[in-house]
Specification:
Layout (H helix, E strand, L loop, with lengths): L4 E6 L4 H10 L5 E6 L9 H4 L15 H10 L3 E5 L6 H15 L4 E4 L9 H8 L12 E3 L12 E3 L3 H15 L6 E8 L14 H4 L4 E2 L7 H13 L4 E8 L6 E8 L6 H11 L6 E3 L15 E8 L2 E8 L3 H15 L17
Parallel strand pairs: 1-2, 1-3, 3-4, 4-6, 5-6, 7-9, 11-12
Antiparallel strand pairs: 7-10, 8-9, 10-13, 12-13
Helix pairs in contact: 1-10, 3-4, 6-8
Length: about 350
Amino acid sequence: MNESIAAVVLGGTGYVAGELLRLLAAHPTFRVAAVMSDSQPGAPLAGAFPHLGTSYPHERFRSEEEVTRILCEAPQSALFSAAPHGVAAGLIDRLLTACERAGSAPRVADISADFRYRSAAAYEAVYHRPHPAPARLAQFTCAVPEHLERLTTPHVAHPGCFATAMLLAAVPLLATGLVSDTLFISGTTGSTGSGRKPVEATHHPLRHGDLYSYSALAHRHTPEVTACAKAATGVDAEFAFIPHSGPFARGIHVTLQAALRRPLDTDELLGLLRAFYAAMPFVQVRAQAPRVKDVATSNYAHLSATVAGNTLAVLCAIDNLNKGAAGGAIQWMNRIYGLPQSAGLGAPAPGWT
């Protein structure tokens, strides 16, 4: 495919939208046609993202009406939604409805939580509000790109950033029947995972030099991980997850522990993980423990593992804004349009962020 494909970004002023724009600026096929912002329509994009000013010197945020027109007129389009949870589904539904009437067919990669569940009831059980567009749920599949061989729906929902790291560590173990069905996971995320709007959890004087847990054994991503793991492996596993806030801006590190069902040593476990991800360009399995700085700002995931007695540990580090959100969505859209998975995503981490 040589012609360009129009890319539209929703949720334009947030961190994930900014990361989408950074990555799309270097993409060989997707061309940014519009960036929507409800709060700043008409404002220059560089005002919200000064670091992107050289890539988008003349781009301004668009209104929903302008975005609708652009999508309806585009022969091919990729709609990336970084709109907030609870807002994304209604907006996507309105845009798709208008495009259906116009005879166009955008493909959607949603990064919010709105299409991560198969039923409205499952969504409502977690978010305690009615689903904004229940009729659209059947048009979306939620999975990380590495765990679904073939997409059978027109649109995709990317799992959350914590969920991505947890699934990359857990799915090979469950798929091979290697561990018990109860997995214990501790994870630490950077402050950008809380979004751009200032809140206490991201206030620098409170977060700098500190480490603390929150929502222990009750995090809202846990049911999502359970559902995605079952879809990928057929195993209805239990995830005991404790998230932590770390004193850094970007990155996620998770440690998974579980009981082995059969004897295994560390080298065999590393070999199993390497074999499972052998065809996946962004998952690298290494003997040494992963470090957040080695993946921060990149779409790569680093995994390692160790065994002691009847217990194994799998460690995973990813970037929350890239692999856990924007990069994962672009990786999916590459697959949807028959492009190489790595198109526009191959840059390594800088290493000294």
